[in-house]
Amino acid sequence: MTETCCDSVYSRGVNRFPRIIEYIDKGYIDLAAKPTKIDDMGSFEPLDGNLGPGNVNAKLSMDRAVELARCSCGNLLP
Prior knowledge:
Layout: H1 2-6, H2 17-26, E1 36-37, E2 47-48, H3 54-72
Antiparallel strand pairs: 1-2
């Protein structure tokens, strides 16, 4: 969240922190959740975030997308 503020994306930054705490308390966000694969479509994998924090799910999903791209491209990416 801090990094998004540093990148001038204030709508996803620390100003949302009170709401995030509220959502954790209400059970809308599960801090222990991990994204799970819904389907396997080769180089495309839809994921279920399982109520995990959005920024964390986005990071994990992007890491997985890069991993899939490396496999699909025969390791052409650095």
